[in-house]
Structure formats: C-alpha cells, structure tokens
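Bumping my old thread because nobody answered last time. Still need a sequence for this structure:
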C-alpha cells in the first residue's frame, strides 16, 4: 500500500496575497508526490465541527497514514487516540521560542504559547518537525526533545522574473490589516515616511480594503497581482516580530521587485540581489533615497537564488520510518 500523507489546511478567503502556510502545503505536497507518497489535502475550519472531526479521524485511522499540519491551533486532533495507534505528526513549524516571546502581548497569544510548549514536551516519539530556516530550528534547539527529528525544508518558490528596475517611483506596503502586527508595522512606517514627505501605496484587506487617501498615503485595498507588483516599485516590509518566511518579502522578490526590510523580514532567504536590509526603521528614508539614487544611475537587478537549506532526501527516509514502511 502506498504511504499516505494528509495535510490539514485552514480554510481561508481567496486573496491576491498568497498565504505562507498554504504555500508550505503546496511545497511539501509536491515533494511527497516526488517521493512516491499518496497526498491528500483536507481544508478545515479553525475550530472543527463534529462532522469534520469524524472525517479526519477516519482518514488517520489508516495505519499507513500520517498527519501534516500548518498551524498549532489544529493540534488538539493529534491528542485524540485512534484505537491503540498513536497519531504520527509532521509539523510545518515556525520557531516556538519566537512565537512564545511574541505571545506575551496578549492573554490569548500567551495561552497559545503555553499550549505549544506543552505539545513540544508531550510528543517525544513518532514525530517530525520541519522549519523554514536554520535560524528558526536553532531557536528551538533547547526546547526540542531529543527524539524529535528536525529538518529545514524551505518553501519551493520559483523565480518568475529576473528583473532589472530603473527609476523607482513607488513605495509599496502589502499587508492584511485584520492582523494587528501589520497595523503596528504600517503605523510606524507611515510616521517615519511622513518625516521625509514620502508617499506610500498600501495594499491589502481589513482597514485598507477600500480605496481612500490618508495624508500622503493611498489605500488601494485588494487588487490583482499586475497592479500590486509593478516595475518601478520598491516594497517596504518593516518586520519586527518574525518567525518563518515573510510573504511580504518573498512574493515581491520572486517577481523581480526590490524590497527593503529588516533582518527578521529576510529570514530564510539566501543570496538575493535586490533585497536591502536595515533594522533601524527611523533611518529608512535615507536608505530609500540611496536606493532610488542607485536606480537612476543604473538598473537595479533583482535575482532570486533560492533558500539556505533543503534536506528532502533525509526527510524522506525519516517519514518512511515514521510510517513504519520499510521501502527504501
């Protein structure tokens, strides 16, 4: 019987900005199919109804199957025994350490952080974790039980355009403002740009879902990729609290659009021209002027060269062992 991997993917509204978790599902699904596994993707709600729960439990009851998840909010399923069989889990992880540091801002996130810590202690056998970068994996090293295998399996994102951009003329921020961190980032960025009388074009859902003007800045709402990623753009991603891969950064870079971001915003990205990194947001206007000046003198090349690590073959052997299948 062909081993089966089951992904639980949260149901989400269709948006022009791809979700990083869904991108990860697509990446690992492709890898598993190449390895010869059967892959099933099941879309579920954040808090499952009994019918969903029975469906997933039934599929996992197959002794030849394993569960792959995209978010720790789904892990309560993994604690439910299926007969005498313990559910086998493949996590697609952001750093737990980073998540718990960030979670201290609210009671809800604090509870989620404590739950994640409990899970990291309980799952000592039949368990695999995958990370987007060595940085994320190393952040968790001191809290990861020794019997849990860890791998760095980045998103497999192709480079659509090897771009050369001259005469930059737009500063762009992308983010769903239903997400509080995006609101915080945008407020800080707008205040900084105001000191230099710089205009920002803002795209995304939430408070920015309708077209309007606020001071120097224009809210465009949701749009097609052709409008969002234009030649002559410089995308700004003032990421503070980051674990995993920033979709604000990689979606622009892989389309040949230059990006100014922080060290956290560049997490997991390897050898990429067109990616400008500066942690001090207050001096971004000066950095932006330098990038624009550079673009006026010669074309800015944006080239994507992939990720820092890919341990797919070792990962394949670990999954086969996890499933109790002896095929090489």
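Sorry it took so long. Here it is:
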């Amino acid at each position: 019987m062909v081993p089966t991997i089951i992904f639980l993917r949260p149901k989400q509204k269709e948006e022009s900005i791809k979700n990083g978790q869904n991108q990860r599902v697509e990446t690992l699904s492709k890898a598993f199919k190449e390895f010869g596994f059967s892959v099933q993707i099941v879309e579920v709600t954040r808090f499952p109804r009994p019918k969903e729960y029975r469906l997933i439990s039934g599929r996992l009851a197959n002794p030849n199957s394993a569960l792959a998840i995209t978010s720790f909010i789904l892990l309560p399923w993994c604690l439910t025994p299926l007969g005498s069989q313990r559910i086998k889990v493949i996590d697609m992880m952001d750093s737990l350490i980073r998540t718990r540091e960030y979670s201290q801002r609210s009671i809800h996130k604090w509870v989620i952080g404590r739950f994640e810590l409990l899970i990291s202690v309980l799952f000592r056998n039949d368990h695999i974790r995958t990370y987007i970068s060595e940085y994320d994996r190393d952040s968790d090293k001191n809290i990861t039980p020794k019997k849990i295998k860890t791998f760095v399996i980045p998103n497999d994102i192709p480079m659509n355009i090897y771009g050369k951009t001259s005469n930059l003329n737009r500063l762009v921020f992308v983010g769903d403002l239903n997400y509080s961190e995006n609101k915080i980032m945008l407020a800080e960025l707008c205040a900084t740009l105001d000191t230099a009388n710089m205009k920002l074009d803002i795209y995304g859902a939430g408070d920015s879902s309708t077209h309007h003007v606020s001071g120097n800045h224009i809210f465009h709402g949701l749009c097609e990729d052709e409008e969002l990623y234009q030649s002559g753009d410089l995308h700004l991603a003032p990421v503070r609290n980051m674990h995993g891969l920033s979709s604000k950064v990689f979606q622009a870079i892989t389309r040949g659009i230059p990006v100014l971001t922080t060290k956290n915003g560049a997490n997991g990205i390897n050898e990429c021209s067109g990616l400008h990194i500066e942690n001090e947001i207050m001096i971004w206007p000066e950095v932006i002027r330098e990038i624009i000046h550079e673009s006026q003198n010669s074309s800015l090349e944006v080239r994507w060269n992939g990720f820092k690590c890919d341990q797919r073959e070792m990962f394949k052997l670990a999954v086969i062992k996890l499933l109790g299948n002896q095929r090489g």
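Residues 20-35 form the longest helix (16 residues). Let me know if any region looks off to you.
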